[in-house]
């Protein structure tokens, strides 16, 4: 049997065995040192055994004040490389690629008193008012991204993803509601694009040529003062020119309340599709895509290239093995004995 979902996909020097990617999901399960501990190693390892094509890590903070919480994993220190490498090596032993999600929470950091943002505007009362980032802060964040890329390379990651959605630092530069700067990083669309594009170019410059660069984009905030689809189409073309290989399209979250649009299976596919059509760049969708039929349809129709699957994989690490069986496709199982549980056996021995 042939299947769109279980067909390989190549970006630069990286080939995924199928189109199912474990979407980044912060587990709040690390310790203050930001090191990948055993609990997280097993968490990621289970999804590697479960047959996904690629694992995307949860947010990896590029600097300590860029953490969402004190339980985030980090990539701001050399002490964090070994734990990450162990997980990446294990995934590779299962034939699974791994991408590091490099992130800075900006004004959505829950750590007290240290947050920076384009402008001194609070996300909500609880998180308080961040400091408007100085030029020195912004240069420091770029240096932190570059150092994080070097650590990701040392840890053996196959790709990196820049997190520019969910209301975090880079997203907040793009939205007019959160970026009121009067220097060259604020103002019209082009000016608000400037800092995220500087980060992208710096990351691309540090990343080896054969490794793809992914970018998680909020395509539309569906709210006054948030980013719009039209802006995002413009930005996507610039990201492509700057060396981004795939846009992982999501929506909303610049303000409390998330997303005002309707939510249904595949509700964000159209955003990825618009970007793919307008720019020719590869895209991924995320959000309530949790059935093989839907995946087959949207990949087969050329609407998206990859599916970033979140909660379905949190519920069931072996989702991809079950889907392969449903698709009638034989896949290489990291532990071949698992076939005894997926085949048509009446007795298990
Ligand atoms: C517990 C949880 C943590 C998440 N953490 C992240 C994260 O670290 N980075 C990110 O880009 N998205 C994060 N997300 C969003 C997911 O990557 C995904 O896009 C979203 O859950 C929609 O996909 P789904 O419907 O398949 O779950 C998180 C989602 C959940 C449920």
Features:
single chain, 349 residues, alpha/beta, TIM Barrel, eight-stranded parallel barrel, two-stranded antiparallel ribbon, 11 helices
Characterization of this structure:
- With 349 residues, the chain is an alpha/beta fold.
- It has one domain (9-334): Aldolase class I (TIM Barrel), CATH 3.20.20.
- It contains 11 helices and 13 strands.
- It has helices at 38-49, 81-93, 135-154, 169-174, 189-206, 229-241, 269-279, 292-300, 311-315, 319-327, 339-342; strands spanning 9-11, 14-16, 20-22, 54-61, 73-74, 97-103, 116-117, 131-132, 159-164, 213-220, 246-251, 282-286, 306-309.
- The protein has an 8-stranded parallel beta barrel, surrounded by 6 helices. Strands 1-2 form a two-stranded antiparallel sheet.
- Strand 11 (246-251), helix 7 and strand 12 form a beta-alpha-beta unit.
- The mean pLDDT is 96.
- Flavin mononucleotide (FMN) is lined by residues 23-26, 58-59, 101, 163, 166, 216, 250, 286-288, 308-312.
Strand residues, percent? 15-25%
Which ligands appear in the coordinates?
A: flavin mononucleotide
The run of helices and strands is: EEEHEEHEEEHEHHEHEHEHEHHH
Uncertain segments are none
Write down the CATH topology. TIM Barrel
Radius of gyration equals 20 Å
| Number of domains as seen in the coordinates | 1
Mean pLDDT: 96
SS field, number of helical segments? 11
């Amino acid at each position: 049997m042939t299947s769109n979902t279980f067909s390989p996909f190549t970006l630069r020097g990286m080939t995924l065995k199928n189109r199912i990617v474990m979407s980044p999901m912060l587990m709040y399960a690390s310790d203050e040192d930001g090191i990948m501990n055993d609990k997280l190693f097993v968490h990621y390892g289970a999804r590697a055994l479960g047959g996904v094509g690629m694992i995307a890590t949860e947010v990896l903070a590029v600097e300590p004040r860029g953490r969402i919480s004190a339980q985030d994993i980090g990539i701001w220190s050399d002490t964090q490389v070994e734990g990450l490498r162990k997980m990446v090596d294990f995934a590779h032993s299962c034939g699974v690629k791994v991408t590091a999600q490099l992130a800075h929470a900006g004004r959505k950091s829950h750590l007290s008193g240290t947050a920076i943002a384009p402008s001194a505007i609070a996300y909500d009362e609880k998180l308080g008012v961040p400091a408007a980032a100085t030029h020195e802060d912004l240069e420091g964040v770029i240096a932190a991204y570059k150092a994080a890329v070097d650590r990701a390379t040392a840890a053996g990651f196959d790709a990196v993803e820049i997190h520019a959605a969910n209301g975090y630092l880079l997203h907040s530069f793009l939205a007019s509601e959160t970026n009121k700067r009067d220097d060259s990083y604020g103002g019209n669309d082009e000016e608000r694009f400037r800092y995220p594009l500087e980060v992208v170019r710096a990351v691309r410059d540090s990343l080896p040529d054969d490794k793809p660069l992914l970018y998680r984009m909020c395509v539309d905030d569906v709210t006054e003062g948030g980013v719009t689809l039209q802006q995002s189409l413009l930005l996507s073309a610039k990201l492509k020119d700057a060396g981004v290989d795939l846009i992982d399209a999501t929506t909303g979250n610049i303000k409390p309340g998330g997303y005002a649009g309707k939510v249904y299976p595949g509700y964000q596919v159209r955003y990825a599709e618009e970007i793919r059509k307008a720019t020719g760049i590869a895209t991924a969708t995320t959000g309530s895509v949790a059935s093989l039929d839907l995946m087959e349809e949207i990949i087969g129709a050329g609407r998206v290239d990859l599916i970033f699957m979140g909660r379905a994989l949190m519920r069931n690490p072996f989702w991809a093995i079950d889907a392969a069986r449903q698709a009638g496709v034989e896949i290489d199982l990291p532990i071949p004995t698992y076939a005894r549980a997926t085949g048509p056996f009446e007795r298990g021995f």
